[in-house]
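ok new one. same drill as before - structure tokens go in, u give me an amino acid for every spot. 610 of them this time. try not to just spam alanines like last time pls lmao
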């Protein structure tokens, strides 16, 4: 028995080395492409020449190597990697500007970010920082948030408790121990579990890259849970794990507060997913200087330099297939006409639901393998965003470069359950969870761009069904009832803000509006208004799902990239791009970015020592 097990392990190691660590294709991270940082461009008209290039057939490059649907970070990131190895890529975007959730918009002189609130893991020469530097040739500048970067606010005004969250592997638990004397063991056990679970994420990548028969072998033999603490903890809910650690309800809340960054209440959330978020911010949190539109602004020229293009106002209404069920292009709607664009490869950053349910012909949608993948996932929760423009500087308004997670109380599961099951009118009167951040306070270039002004981004959740009746209305005029419902949510959120930030008063507000789930559908193509792609509950982290949903689709020449391939958020979307790129280029780009990070770290240390 031991001999058989030993042989199986040897074969397994050989397969993993061959398919996960064996590299034969071109490497977009072969060299450090960083250039001296150029002067920032603040002129919106100049930036729009890059970000708002409208689709016309004459702008489509000849002899394309690939077409990517969607210009979110999963699409743009992959396009840059392909461009760096000489591929000519066309990215088509249905919105009027590139960037997906990284785009910005301006109203009444205020610039608002749509989806980037803070990014972790950018300290020093981490592989993630190295990858982002290569994606922009070193032009993206990142500003650290204050430390504490998050504040967890619990309870009503008369019994309010505030818990700052600090970065640092040592400082994070030390500060918690100061706030919760007697809970030292619980905090240490929590940190140990979080780090151990996160470390096992490597096997998720293996399941995506290795041949499907090998992935199934790992799953059906139970080896995934023996080899990876990530998959061992994945079936366990955040609530169950945390409740075993402590009886202190406020500490439980602090352990779980960041569930809002992936959209599942703690009892439905996988502890494995939660561990990734905690470790992602252990070294600190950062914000892009100049706002999140800087991301697309510095990536697009790299794509163009290789002969590709990023074109907006280019809604794809279907993917083109030949009789052999091979993708060979897309159909873009230009007014009432279809423009067919051909390429040997089509990659979708539009999400699995849009790709399979909207862009495939009916007969291909019905394929058992397609239906199997769709049956394994469900839509994430709808997002509610409120954008506030304020008259006053950050000092005058008491705003800081940090985030506030404000909860009505510490019983998160009950709060969210009740809220999401309410009738919409009642739900709009009291929002139990509100994320509050000031992009203007985080951005050192803001004062130069918009002196004397400030912005707030407020984020929560809302059911798509609350707003669904207005989904077919004109986006700028959906009717009085819709406006009234939106205003009720806005008023509820502003009451919370003014309660926590006493220097912010109604007379300081120059602009306010809300983006509901149907707003998300219109602007970012989210089918049910979700902002994190497919649902990230416990089922999302089953080994079977992660082995089945991979960059390769059941249809030849059609691939998936972005959040639905790997994980949600900015980092997760980029990981999806790296994973898809690894399949297309036949090499492990995750490993390549790691190797380059180690090289640059070594070179920088050597230069410093000299």
């Amino acid at each position: 028995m031991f001999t058989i097990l030993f042989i199986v392990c040897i074969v397994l190691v050989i397969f993993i080395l061959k398919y996960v660590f064996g590299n034969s294709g071109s490497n977009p991270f072969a060299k450090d492409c960083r250039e001296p940082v150029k002067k920032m461009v603040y002129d919106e008209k100049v930036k729009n020449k890059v970000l708002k290039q409208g689709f016309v057939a004459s702008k489509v490059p000849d002899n394309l190597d690939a077409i990517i649907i969607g210009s979110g970070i999963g699409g743009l990131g992959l396009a840059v990697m392909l461009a760096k190895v000489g591929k000519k890529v066309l990215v088509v975007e249905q919105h009027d500007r590139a960037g997906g959730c990284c785009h910005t918009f301006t109203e009444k002189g205020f610039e608002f970010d749509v989806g980037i609130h803070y990014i972790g893991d950018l300290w020093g020469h981490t592989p993630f920082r190295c990858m982002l530097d290569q994606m922009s040739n070193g032009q993206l500048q990142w500003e650290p948030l204050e430390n504490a970067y998050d504040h967890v606010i619990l309870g009503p005004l008369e019994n309010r408790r505030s818990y700052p969250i600090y970065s640092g592997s040592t400082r994070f638990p030390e500060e918690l121990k100061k706030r919760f004397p007697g809970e030292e063991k619980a905090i240490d056990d929590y940190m140990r579990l979080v780090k151990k679970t996160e470390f096992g994420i490597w096997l998720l990548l293996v399941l995506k890259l290795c041949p499907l028969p090998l992935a199934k072998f790992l799953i059906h033999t139970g080896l995934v849970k023996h080899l990876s603490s990530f998959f061992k903890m994945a079936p366990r809910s955040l609530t169950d794990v945390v409740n075993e650690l402590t009886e202190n309800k406020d500490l439980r809340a602090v352990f779980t507060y960041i569930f809002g960054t992936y959209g599942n209440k703690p009892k439905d959330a996988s502890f494995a997913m939660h561990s990734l978020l905690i470790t992602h911010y252990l070294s600190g949190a950062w914000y892009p200087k100049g706002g999140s539109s800087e991301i697309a602004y510095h990536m697009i020229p790299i794509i163009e330099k290789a002969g590709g293009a990023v074109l907006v106002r280019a809604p794809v209404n279907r993917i083109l297939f030949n009789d052999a069920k091979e993708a060979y292009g897309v159909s873009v709607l230009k007014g009432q006409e279809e423009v067919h664009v051909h390429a040997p490869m089509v990659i979708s950053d539009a999400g699995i639901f849009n790709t399979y349910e909207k862009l495939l012909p009916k007969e291909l949608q019905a394929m058992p393998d397609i239906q199997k993948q769709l049956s394994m996932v469900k839509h994430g929760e709808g997002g509610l965003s409120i954008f506030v423009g304020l008259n006053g500087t950050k000092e005058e308004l008491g705003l800081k470069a940090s985030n506030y997670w404000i909860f009505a109380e510490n019983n998160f599961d009950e709060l969210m359950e009740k809220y999401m099951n309410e009738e919409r009118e009642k739900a709009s009167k009291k929002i139990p969870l509100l994320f509050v951040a000031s992009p203007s306070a985080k951005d050192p270039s803001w004062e130069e761009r918009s002196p004397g002004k400030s912005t707030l981004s407020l984020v929560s959740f809302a059911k798509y069904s609350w707003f669904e009746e207005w989904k077919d209305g004109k986006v700028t005029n959906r009717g009085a009832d819709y406006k009234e419902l939106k205003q009720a949510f806005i008023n509820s959120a502003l009451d919370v803000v003014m309660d926590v930030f006493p220097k912010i008063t109604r007379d300081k507000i120059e602009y306010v509006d809300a983006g509901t789930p149907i707003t998300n559908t219109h602007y970012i193509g989210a089918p049910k208004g979700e902002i994190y792609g497919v649902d990230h509950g416990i089922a999302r982290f089953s080994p079977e799902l992660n082995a089945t949903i991979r960059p390769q689709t059941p249809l030849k020449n059609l691939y998936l990239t972005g959040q639905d391939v790997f994980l949600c958020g900015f980092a997760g979307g980029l990981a999806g791009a790296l994973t898809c790129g690894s399949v297309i280029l036949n090499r492990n780009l995750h490993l390549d970015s790691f190797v380059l990070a180690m090289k640059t770290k070594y070179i920088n240390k050597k230069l410093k020592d000299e």
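The first helix runs from residue 2 to 21. and btw The mean pLDDT is 94.
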